[in-house]
Amino acid sequence: MNRSIGFYLLLSSLLLVWACDNAILQPVPKRERTNIRFLHAHADLGSVNVNLSSYGEVRTVASSLSFLTGWPSQGYASVLVDTSETVAPTLLELVQSNLGGTLIEGKEIDLFPATRSTFAILDSFNKPLFVQTSDDFEAPIAGHANFRFMNLNHNLLSVSLKSSTDSVNIARQNFLNYSRFKYLPAGRYSFFFVDDFTGVTKTSILDLDIQAGKTYSFYLTHINGTAKAGVELLEQ
Question: Global pTM?
Fold first, then answer.
């Protein structure tokens, strides 16, 4: 009897050591901060929630986001993510706020520490889509603002952003493309979104006060096929 008890105690000890060794070998997520924002540019979806899955945890990062609005309202949210992806990839999920139906499930994304990204929610030929942009900009030079343009309208395959003063000319942005950030002198401007194939102005943003030191992101989407323009303030 004593020998049996001793054998089982020895076996239990060996199993415990084996389990501890294997636990030590399990990779530990490398959690680092990155900066993200979301833009709702899909007219047909209504209010949506965005869930972020990282290092085995799922959390709602944007709640009740409505068409033509962004989260945060300005700037970026700093979030902890597993940048090494040692445990599992970082995923985004898009859910209808009121009905709870999943619109986009398990979209794998790449996030890097100390960077900025925008995730635009848009209509890609009647299917909801996340598009990630790398928001690589520095503080503008004195007396100027930063600005860029994103074409999120699948009905207009190539669009240029222009102004009445010819100070702005971001040419030939294809669907899902976005320009680099450029400098623009502070002042009041009217912006025109021009179809490159026809030369027709599809929509405009009139008499906008561009303020020095700020960063703007212009975008073009649509409502039932009619072009709709918007602008976000990324940094003050």
Answer: 0.84
